Amino acid sequence: MTAVESKFTDVMGMRAHYLEAGSGPPLVLLHSGEFGACAELSWEFNIEPLAKHFRVLAPDWLGFGQTAKVYSFDDMQGFRIRHIAALLDELDVEEAHFIGNSMGGGQLARAAVMNPPGLPIVKMVLASGGGAAPHNEARKVLNSYDGSRDHMEQIVQTLVRRPDLRTDDAYIDRRHRISHHPGAWEATAAARFSMPGREPSPRAVTPFEKIRRPTLIVAGGLDPLRMPGYGEILQDQIEGSELVVFEDAGHCPQIDMPDRFNNTVVDFLLR
């Protein structure tokens, strides 16, 4: 079994934490952005299988996990992307494949259309990343986290479809515990702040049609946090992209159906 190492380094004067395993072509895994999110939770069922083929690097974004709890109010998305790029430079990664789940996929797509690209992308996988997001009850559950264990259980049941995890007390407790790391709630909640009386700044729209990297879209057929059919729309926008729908998966197909997910992305990345 491939060992997964937890490592730290300083990047741009801030602590960066990442998980590393395997050898071969670099593969960077970018985690989601819910309260308590981190590389450990997003990719625990994927790192070791993927490390049989790649040098897997799974960093915690700024503000998440064990990376520094820093938030840039004037350029949140660009600042986080630059921090990941600087980490990869520190690790002598000149180019890599990337997989992003949810927020990680959205940030990955944004990096791909920057000029020059914000990350050294060879091929990329968007797992529930990008596409229209409805303002529904599921979204409210994720955005209104009050720090309680009961609310974390609601978040788990919103994100995860696997029966063995949705009601697993130990799994929910672990997510709840991680969400209480010092500064974690504040750094995640900061994205929702706006001055009283001022209209919130509109979210930047990613021009997916400008992506020029081989792209695989993995969509969950039971995803409550994306509009139905969003995967087909993304596929139409990203020239030459491929789409795979996991009909019984939700917002985290890499968690709900890890064996299928791992096999699907390895086939795409090594093809």
Structure description:
With 271 residues, the protein is α/β, with parallel strands linked by helices. It contains twelve helices and eight strands. Strands 1-2-4-3-5-6-7-8 form an eight-stranded mixed beta sheet, sandwiched between helices. Strand 5, helix 4 and strand 6 (121-127) form a beta-alpha-beta unit. The longest helix has 15 residues, at 76-90. It starts with a strand and ends with a helix. The mean pLDDT is 95.
Provide the spatial order of strands within the biggest beta sheet: 1-2-4-3-5-6-7-8
CATH class: Alpha Beta
Indicate the low-confidence ranges by residue numbers.
none
Helical stretch tally: 12
β-strand percent reads 15-25%
pLDDT averaged residue by residue: 95
Number of strands: 8
- How big is the Rg? 17 Å
Alpha-beta classification: alpha/beta
As for the number of domains, it is 1
Overall 3D form: globular
Distance between the termini: 24 Å
| Biggest beta sheet summary | 8 strands, mixed
CATH architecture: 3-Layer(aba) Sandwich
Element-level helix/strand string: EEEHHEHEHEHHHHHEHEHH
Helix content: 25-40%
Question: Topology of this protein?
Answer:
Elements: E1 5-11, E2 14-21, E3 26-30, H1 39-43, H2 47-50, E4 55-59, H3 76-90, E5 96-101, H4 103-113, E6 121-127, H5 137-143, H6 149-159, H7 163-166, H8 169-179, H9 184-189, E7 215-220, H10 230-237, E8 242-246, H11 253-256, H12 258-270
Parallel strand pairs: 3-4, 3-5, 5-6, 6-7, 7-8
Antiparallel strand pairs: 1-2, 2-4
Helix pairs in contact: 6-8
